[in-house]
Write a structure and sequence with these properties.
The chain is mainly alpha-helical. Helices cover about 40% and strands about 5% of the residues. It has three helices and two strands. The longest helix is centred in the middle third of the chain and has 10 residues, at about 25-35. The radius of gyration is 13 Å and the shape is globular.
């Protein structure tokens, strides 16, 4: 397979779950049940694969960061 630069790294549901500290089952469920709880995903024509761009996930996390949040 061709090398993808880091800005094009694709994440599968298990990888996204690890980043978000959720279970893979929750991520898969949220895709349909509550998509607003997840970063925007990549929708490729003629496929049902669940994929996210790492850079989009990182940007989404920054956008949802609370200023002054307790660690």
């Amino acid at each position: 397979p061709a090398f993808l630069p880091s800005s094009l790294d694709l994440l599968n549901p298990a990888q996204l779950a690890a980043i978000l500290h959720k279970s893979e089952a929750t991520v898969r469920s949220d895709v349909h049940r509550a998509p607003e709880r997840l970063p925007p995903r990549v929708v490729m024509p003629n496929t049902h694969k669940l994929l996210w761009l790492r850079s989009s996930v990182e940007a989404w996390l920054v956008q949802h960061q609370e200023v002054g949040a307790i660690q």
